[in-house]
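Appendix B, record 7
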Amino acid sequence: MSVHKSYKRVTTQVLQEMKVNGEKISMLTAYDFSLAQIIDDAGIDVVLVGDSASNVMAGHETTLPITLDHMIYHAQSVVRASKRALVVVDLPFGSYQGNSKNALDSAIRIMKEAEAHAVKLEGGQEIIESIQRILTAGVPVMGHLGLTPQSIYKFGTYSVRAKEKVEAEKLIEDAMALEKAGVFAIVVEKIPAKLAEKVQNAVQIPIIGIGAGNKVAGQVLVIHDLLGITKEFTPRFLRRYANLYEEIYKATQAYISDVKSGDFPNDKEQY
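Structure tokens (predicted):
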């Protein structure tokens, strides 16, 4: 039986409490003030300023081109809107891999300039040194395993990860190593539901899934996908809660029509 406690401000400790109490953690991405304010008001637990901004905000094919400066800009906008949610910011590609000092500098910039609450890094044991270095500065870190979009060119595909035994075992080992290093939670993306459950059972910290079944501590989706603003992206794990593409398209057409016909603005809509 889950206990739903009311929290004024979600912290990393609150997420651990939620997991222990059996209350599922809700997490969504946001990249701008207006949408972040709506989802924060609605009661979302965690807002992820994802490097998916590279795709949905900037129109890039992958998450690789987005820079640390871009991420800080998006994060600043989201933090200004978030009164309750924990705000986690992705460290973008190239800002932490292979150089722990660079990783620490990147994390500190995000915390200082955006006033975010935590950072997220993709990868397992190969980035442990970067994670440890960031944690020594008192910056909370969220991990990310499974399909790690920043490694798209290594994988060569966005298909389900860790179906094979070797990769599945490495994923569990990575999760345990991340927990030992001190991360407060881990996102697992696009892995078999049974494996995600095994990962959650192997660690004490919350595992947050995207395309990883419901036997984990929480779920995350990209806001543009959930709202149906994007229409090409239709993976099995996505549930659309609105069809805003259609709504905005129709509203724009109605506006164009009213402007062209001279109906807008009418007598009541002018001074």
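Remarks on this record: The domain at 12-240 is CATH 3.20.20.60 (TIM Barrel). The longest helix spans residues 244-261.
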